[in-house]
Amino acid sequence: MTQNLIAQLAQNIIVSCQALEDEPLYGPEHMAVMAVAAEEGGAIAIRANTPQDVRAIKRKCKLPIIGLYKKDYPDSAVYITPTIREVKEIAEAGAEFVAIDATSLTRPGGEKLEHFVQSIREECPGLLIVADVSTYEEGVTAMGLGVDLVSTTMSGYTPQSMTNEGPDIELVRRLSALGGVPVLAEGRIWTPSEAAECLKAGAYAVVVGTAITRPQEITRRFATAILEAARQKQTS
To answer: Recorded E.C. number(s) (predicted)?
Structure first.
């Protein structure tokens, strides 16, 4: 069953349906209908934050879910499903996958990533692990720990990773070339052509969020482009 779930993702798009508390679409009911829209558009899976959103999406959408639970701890910069407590809540909500921060940042309580992955295997059997990494070395480490998938989610969002304007296609290429654990391309993918480039670079599947599910950010990009065009027209 688990291998079938992973195989189902191959060469497809996963849509990240997330909204923060200060955003207009915040709330499980909004994310649930967003997931349905993504399903109708051809998404093969959904990435969702919080147990509440996972449950709401499960009620309306048939797609498998990569669940995560963003939580802040005072002794750590890790916030994507940082402890086994959040993992269990995501599993209980019905997610088939859990996304965890697998970067080299210090974890809450100083827990080692190896111990964290082992705890997930022992306490949530059958739950597939997606390791969110920011560098090649982190990806290699996560693969060595036996995670089910590696995602480039954190590239550009940690002190040790390079900040790119677009997706980190080189990281996708290097990790995919290892030929082991499937690699998901995620992060700053704004256009269909960028998504296609990630697949050409070896990505198993592509995760797109903001460019599809955050209308305020989409609108902002259009508004900025139009204002710049108007400025150039006035000065020409």
So the answer is: 5.1.3.9
